[in-house]
Amino acid sequence: MVDVDRRRIGIALTLFVLGAGIGQSPAGAWGATVDAGGQSAPGLPPFAGQVTFLYFDDLDKAAAFYGETLGLKKTFDGGWVRIFTISPSSSVALVDAAKGAHRASDDKPVTLAMVVGDAKEVDRWHDHLKSRGVSIHMPPFDAPSVNVREFRFTDPEGYTLEIFAWLKK
């Protein structure tokens, strides 16, 4: 297992929607400050966390990947849905597509992105996943247009996952 401080990993979807201040963008990364303090509309209670639900035809294989290969802790097992913690305020739920609200499809138009503390941790994750035979799209690279170091890989049913770190300016 990779020696990475899991408390420093956050989750983001394709547009880098960040939760609870973990892995938030440095001020000005895209020309604006990101406030990821669990905010909601004025007068409404703040959100306490975030869970992304992904749908699988082979739930056991997916759960083994997220639990063993990524080393995420399973915090709930309802048989047809299993939830793994990514950070203190974010999780990924793996759902048996035959029983969930949605069905699995060949088209996976979502990226599950996990934020780490610095560029060296991106490289460590890449090396770990490569050594485990994970299908990696490309080696880590710096993306100056969004001020991150990143790489992407695929889970057993084709969802794209990304690990990135905000680059220091």
The average pLDDT is 81
Name the shape in a single word: globular
**Which fold name corresponds to the CATH topology?**
2,3-Dihydroxybiphenyl 1,2-Dioxygenase, domain 1
Number of alpha- plus pi-helical segments: 2
Number of domains: 1
Give a count of the beta strands, DSSP E runs of length 2 or more: 9
Task: Tell me roughly what share of residues is in helical segments.
Answer: 10-25%
Q: Which sequence of strands runs across the widest sheet?
A: 1-6-9-8-7
Give the helix/strand class. Answer: alpha+beta
Multimeric state = single chain
Summarize the structure.
The chain has two helices and nine strands, in the order ββαββββαβββ. It has helices at 59-69, 119-131, and strands at residues 10-12, 50-56, 73-77, 81-87, 90-96, 111-115, 141-143, 148-154, 160-166.
Defining traits:
single chain; 169 residues; 2,3-Dihydroxybiphenyl 1,2-Dioxygenase, domain 1; 5-stranded mixed beta sheet; 2 helices; 30% strand
Structure description:
- This protein starts with 9 loop residues before the first strand and ends with a strand.
- The protein has helices at residues 59-69, 119-131; strands at 10-12, 50-56, 73-77, 81-87, 90-96, 111-115, 141-143, 148-154, 160-166.
- The strands form two sheets. A five-stranded mixed beta sheet has the order 1-6-9-8-7.
- The chain is an alpha+beta fold.
- The longest helix has 13 residues, at 119-131.
- The chain has a single domain (6-21, 49-166), classed as 2,3-Dihydroxybiphenyl 1,2-Dioxygenase, domain 1 (Roll), CATH 3.10.180.10.
